[in-house]
Amino acid sequence: MTVRFGFIGVGGMAEHHIQTLRRIEHAQVTAVYDIDQIRSQEVAEKYGAQSFASYEQLIHSGEIDALFVCTPPFARSGIEEAAASQGIHLLSEKPVGLSMDEVRQKERVIRESGIIHTSGYCLRYLDIVAKAKAYLADKQVDLVLAYRVEGMPGVRWWRMLEQSGGQLVEQSTHQLDLIRYLAGDFAEVNAIHEQRYIRNIYPDATAYDVGTVSFRLESGAIGNITSSSLGKYAGRSGVEFFGHDFYLAISGATLRIKDEHQDLTETSEVDFYYEQNKTFVEAIRFNKPDLLLGDYSDAADTLAVTLAANESAAIGKPVVPGRREPFAKIN
Q: Residue 107: helix, strand or coil by DSSP?
C-alpha cells in the first residue's frame, strides 16, 4: 500500500517534510495547497503533485490518504476537522493552535473520527531521547532546567504574539514537550515575558524577546525554561534533569548521563524528521497508531502549558494548565 500525502501550507518546514517523504518507501506526495498560489504551483511542479485552489478542494479531492498541516498556528480554522471528517489521517505541525477551546474541539473531532493522528514533536524520535526515557523511568527527577536561545525568524507573524503565541508556544515548545515526555505533566507555571530589544527593530512587535517560566510538575519536581530570540551570536537549546543520584542532559543532539557508575556522552546521528515521518507512514499502512510517540492530544496538552505560561505572564500570577477532558472514543 502506498500512502498518498497532501500538504496544506508549503513553506520551508513543509518542503523539508516533502523531501523526507520522498526517501520513504510507500509514501507519495500527491497534493498541495498554500494561500500563496504561486508558491503552491511551484512546489507542486517541483515534486510532481497537484496544486489546489483551496484547502477544501484538496481535502475533498480523493487524491490523498493523509495530510500534513503546516500552516502557522493562527491559520488553522477548520482544517483538521475537515480532514478528520473525510477519514484522512493527520499530522498537524506544532503548535496546533492558539486557543485551547478551539484546539480541544478539534481534538474531540479527531479522536472520534478514528483516524490516525500525530503532531510535529519530532525530537521524541531521537534515539538518545529513547535512551533518556528508559534511564529516567525509575528515577526521581527533582529539578529540571531547560532553555532555547536563537536568532529571530524573519517572518512578521512570528513577532506578533496574537499570531505566533511567542517563542515558548512556537519554538521552545519542543523543549517543554521533552520535559512532559520524559518527566511528566505540569502542575503550575509562573512566567515573566519582556520586550527588551525587539521593538527597536520592529516597533509594532507584540511578542517578547526574553522570557522565563518557573514551574512545578505533578511529580513534585520543580524547574525553569528560558527562551530568547536574542541568540544571534550564541544559540543553544537543551533540557537538563537532576536527581539526588544522577544527572541527565539532552543538548541539541547530544545526550549526557552521569551517575555513580557512568559518565556517558553520546551524540545522535538520527534524522528525527525521517524517523517521525517513516513511523507515520507505517502507522497508517498497518493501522497501528501505537507506533507513534505522540498524538494530537499530546500536542494539545503541550500547547495548554505554553498558553498557560502566556496567561501567567499577562496577569503576573501562577496558572494551572488546563486539563484534558475524557473522550467517549479513543483510538
A: helix
Q: What is the rounded CA–CA span in Å between residue 43 and residue 37?
A: 10
Q: Which of 146, 150, 151 is nearest to 306 (CA)?
A: 146
C-alpha cell at 229: 530570540
Return the number of other C-beta atoms located less than 10 Å from residue 134's C-beta.
9
Element (H, E) at 159: none
Strands (E), 124-230: 143-149, 186-194, 210-217, 222-228
Task: Report the alpha-carbon distance of residue 196 to residue 208 in Å, rounded.
Answer: 8
Going along the chain from its start, the domains and CATH numbers come out as 3-122+273-293 (3.40.50.720), 124-269 (3.30.360.10)
Which pTM value belongs to this model?
A: 0.96
Q: Are strands 210-217 and 186-194 parallel, antiparallel or unpaired?
A: antiparallel
Please, where are the H alpha helices in 165-204? 167-170, 173-183, 198-201
pLDDT (tens digit per residue) in 235-280:
999 999 999 999 999 999 999 999 999 999 999 999 999 999 999 9
At residue 327 the predicted structure's pLDDT band, cuts being 50, 70 and 90, is: low
Q: In the sheet where 89-92 sits, what is the strand order?
A: 50-51, 27-33, 3-8, 66-69, 89-92, 117-119
**Whole-number Å distance between alpha carbons of 43 and 121:** 24
75: exposed, middle or buried (Cβ count in 10 Å: 0-12, 13-18, 19+): middle
CA angle 122, 329, 133 (to 5 degrees): 30
Number of helices and strands (H, E) in the chain?
12, 14
Distance from C-alpha of 193 to C-alpha of 139, rounded to nearest angstrom: 32
Among candidate residues 58, 67, 27, the one with its CA nearest the CA of residue 40: 58
Place of cell 524547574: 223
- Measured between alpha carbons, how far is 202 from 163 in angstroms, rounded to an integer? 15
Q: What is the CA 168 to chain-centroid distance, rounded?
A: 11
Tell me the C-alpha distance between 175 and 92, whole Å.
Answer: 18
Alpha helices (H) in 207-293, listed in sequence order: 272-285
